[in-house]
From TrEMBL:
Keyword Nucleotide-binding carried by entry: no
Pathway in which the depicted protein is active: Protein modification; protein glycosylation
A Pfam family it matches: Galactosyl_T
Membrane topology designation: Single-pass type II membrane protein
This protein's name: Hexosyltransferase
Keywords linked to the UniProt accession: Glycoprotein, Glycosyltransferase, Golgi apparatus, Lipid metabolism, Membrane, Signal-anchor, Transferase, Transmembrane, Transmembrane helix
Intracellular or extracellular location(s): Golgi apparatus membrane
Length: 393
C-alpha cells in the first residue's frame, strides 16, 4: 500500500520537474539565440583589430548585426537598440550593452595605443635654430665628430675645442667637430648664439633639451650629415664628458678602412643586454615602450663610429622604428632593421664606457674613456701629446 502510494506520487513530481526543466531549457535556448549576435561580433574582431578607424569599421564590418546598433549622438558609444520592450529583452539588451561598450572601450584604448605608437615613430619634425650649412662645403671631411652636449656645458666644449676636437689635430686630415644641442631656455640661448658666432661649431634644433630627448639629438646629427655633409667618410657620435683619442682612432681604426661606402659601425659593443625595468634607474625602459626581454647588440652611446654608408640607412629606418629615448639602443634598433651588423673593435680595450685611470701609455692605445671633466680633458691631452712617443705601440 505504502509502496503503491509512493509510486503513484512519483509521476506527478516528475511531471513538475520536467516542466521546470523544459522551461529552463526553452528560456536558455531563447537567450542563447538572441545573444548569438555576440558570436558574430567576436568573430569579426580579429579582422578589424588592425584597422585604423576601429569603431567605424566595427559598424560596417558587422553589417548583419549592425541594424540593431546605432551610434548615439553623445560621443562614440554604441547603444544597443531593440524594437520590442519586454523585460527579458531589456535584460538581455542591457547585458549586451555592457559587453559591447566594454569591448568598444577596449578597442578604443587599443586604438589610442596604436596611434600613440604610430606617432611615437620619429617623424623628423624639428627645425634647426642654429645651423652650419656650409661647414662641409669647402673641403669634404674625413671624420665628423658629433658631440652631444647641453647649454650649460660651455667649459666642456671649450676643453674639447682645445684638445681632441681641434679640427687640425691630424695634419693633412680634415676633421669637423660639431656640438649638438636642443633648446633649453631663452637666456641660455643668447649665450649659445654668441658661442656659435665665435666658433661656428654648434648645431641646435627646437626640441626641448632633456634626457628623454637624447635620441632626437643624435638623429639631428645624423640628419645634418645626410643633408649637409654626405661626403664625409666617417662619423663619430660621442658625449661631452668622454675623452676621445682622435689621433689614435684615425690612425688605427679609420685609415685602414678602404671603403667608407661600405657599412661599418663600431664602438663599445654591448651584447645580450636586458632592458632595465627598475623605474628608479637612469636607464629604465618601461615594458610598454620596449616589450622584448633583450636589446639588440648595440654600441654604448659614449662613443660609436660609423661610415657614411650607414647614415641614410639609419635615417630611413628611423621613419619606421618606434622611438625609444636611449639613443644608443634606438640607433641599434635602426641598424637591426636594416640588417647592418656591428663590427667588434679590433681590441676590447679601445672603447671604454667607464673612466680609465690616466696613464700616458694606456691612453695612447685607447679611443674612449668616460667620465672626464674639462680640466682633465686638457691635462690628459697635453700630457699624452708630450709623452706618447715614449710608449710602445
Ligand atoms: C601611421 O598611421 C597612419 C594611419 O593611421 C598610416 O597611414 C601611417 O602609415 C602610419 N605611419 C607609420 C610610420 O607607420
Ligand atoms: C688646434 O691646433 C692647432 C695646431 O696644433 C693650434 O694652432 C690651434 O691653436 C688649436 N686650436 C685651439 C682652439 O686650441
Ligand atoms: C622632447 O621635445 C619635445 C619638443 O620640444 C617636447 O615637446 C617634449 O616634451 C620633450 N620630451 C621630453 C620627454 O622631455
Ligand atoms: C650627396 O650630396 C650631393 C650634393 O648635394 C648629391 O649630389 C649626392 O647625390 C649625395 N649623395 C648621397 C649618397 O646622398
Amino acid at each position: 500500500m505504502t509502496h503503491h502510494k509512493r509510486y503513484s506520487q512519483l509521476p506527478w513530481k516528475l511531471a513538475k520537474l520536467s516542466v521546470f526543466l523544459y522551461a529552463s531549457i526553452f528560456f536558455s535556448v531563447i537567450y542563447l539565440c538572441l545573444n548569438s549576435n555576440n558570436c558574430n561580433f567576436f568573430a569579426i574582431l580579429p579582422k578589424i583589430k588592425n584597422q585604423e578607424n576601429t569603431v567605424l569599421n566595427l559598424m560596417e564590418g558587422s553589417a548583419v548585426t549592425a541594424k540593431q546598433f546605432h551610434k548615439s549622438d553623445k560621443g562614440n558609444k554604441i547603444i544597443f537598440h531593440k524594437s520590442k520592450d519586454s523585460s527579458i529583452q531589456k535584460f538581455i539588451s542591457n547585458r549586451k550593452k555592457e559587453k559591447l561598450s566594454r569591448t568598444v572601450t577596449q578597442l578604443a584604448n587599443e586604438e589610442t595605443t596604436d596611434s600613440a605608437s604610430n606617432s611615437s615613430i620619429y617623424p623628423h619634425p624639428f627645425q634647426f635654430l642654429i645651423n652650419e650649412k656650409d661647414k662641409c662645403k669647402k673641403k669634404t671631411p674625413f671624420l665628423v665628430l658629433l658631440i652631444s652636449t647641453k647649454a650649460d656645458e660651455k667649459q666642456h666644449r671649450e676643453a674639447i675645442r682645445k684638445t681632441w676636437g681641434n679640427e687640425s689635430v691630424v695634419p693633412g686630415i680634415k676633421i669637423l667637430c660639431l656640438f649638438m644641442l636642443g633648446f633649453s631656455d631663452k637666456d641660455q640661448n643668447e649665450n649659445i648664439l654668441q658661442e656659435s658666432r665665435k666658433y661656428h661649431d654648434i648645431i641646435q634644433q627646437d626640441f626641448l633639451d632633456t634626457y628623454k630627448n637624447l635620441t632626437l639629438k643624435t638623429m639631428m646629427g645624423i640628419k645634418w650629415i645626410a643633408t649637409y655633409c654626405n661626403g664625409t667618410s666617417f662619423i663619430m657620435k660621442t658625449d661631452s664628458n668622454v675623452f676621445v683619442n682622435t689621433i689614435y682612432l684615425i690612425q688605427e681604426v679609420l685609415r685602414p678602412i678602404k671603403s667608407p661606402s661600405q657599412y661599418f659601425f663600431t664602438g663599445c659593443l654591448m651584447k645580450n643586454y636586458e632592458p632595465n625595468r627598475n623605474p628608479d634607474s637612469k636607464w629604465y625602459m618601461p615594458k610598454e615602450l620596449y616589450p622584448s626581454d633583450r636589446y639588440p647588440d648595440f654600441c654604448s652611446g659614449t662613443g660609436y663610429v660609423f661610415s657614411r654608408a650607414v647614415v641614410p640607412k639609419i635615417l630611413s629606418a628611423s621613419l619606421k622604428v618606434k622611438y625609444v629615448h636611449l639613443e644608443d639602443i634606438y640607433v641599434a634598433l635602426c641598424l637591426e632593421r636594416q640588417g647592418i651588423t656591428i663590427s667588434p673593435p679590433l681590441k676590447q680595450s679601445f672603447f671604454n664606457i667607464y673612466r680609465v685611470p690616466f696613464v700616458t701609455c694606456v691612453y695612447s692605445n685607447i679611443i674612449t674613456s668616460h667620465g672626464i671633466d674639462p680640466t682633465e680633458q686638457i691635462t690628459f691631452w697635453q700630457t699624452l701629446q708630450k709623452k706618447k712617443h715614449m710608449c710602445h705601440k
